[in-house]
Amino acid sequence: MEKAMDRAPADGALPREAALRRPVLIVFDLDGTIADSRVLARESYKRVFALMGCGLISDELADSFNGPDADEICRVMGVSGERRALYDRLLEETEGEMIAAHGRLFPGVERMLQSLAPRARLALLTNGSPSYCEANIETFHLSPYIGLHSGYVSGVTKSQRIRLWAKELGARRVICVGDRGTDVAFAREAGAYAVGVTYGMGDREELSRADALCDTPGQVVAACARIIDAD
Fold first, then answer.
1. N or C: fewer beta carbons within 10 Å in the chain?
2. pTM of the entire structure?
3. Taking phi first (over 0 means left), then psi (-120 to 50 degrees means alpha), and beta for anything else, what does residue 147 get?
4. 185 with 196, same domain?
């Protein structure tokens, strides 16, 4: 599938050799793609909403919050006004503890990043808080591979962030790797390739609109390599 950013303008087009020197950007979702955070997220949301006086929410409701951004989660739970600041504070405190107790990378992820880092600029993009994103990078020693990262910023969608990074880098091609249908949708909105991973929260049906489906991090490397080399 040809993406908008693959097509050179008719006027003032770069020579092919110069175009190929522009970097490829690969944007990874965090939860369910890099980090196996199902238990971490579930226990975090259950603890936070219990502390906020919402009672003990079900595992199913807690799991449904693994993907949506903070604004959507608070809308579902009826959290607004001054209580929103309390939610943000409690979640930040809780997530820090939970990463130490429950956080882990999916098997093969570090090798995946090692393989792709020499061939592209790697970025991490999550609907978690900026501090949560940074804590994962520090805990799992991802900084040698991840050059760009962002947590959720209200008013900035994932597709907007991807486009900003692509423009800053002058990327010739962008690949988005994620485990949910929303990750595929954001890739489409950003004019990027979408690689869906089935080892996270989403299944093959949810990810059916992706350009490639991968059952393992090793397959992600192969799928990204095919896209990088499609010149």
1. N
2. 0.82
3. alpha
4. yes
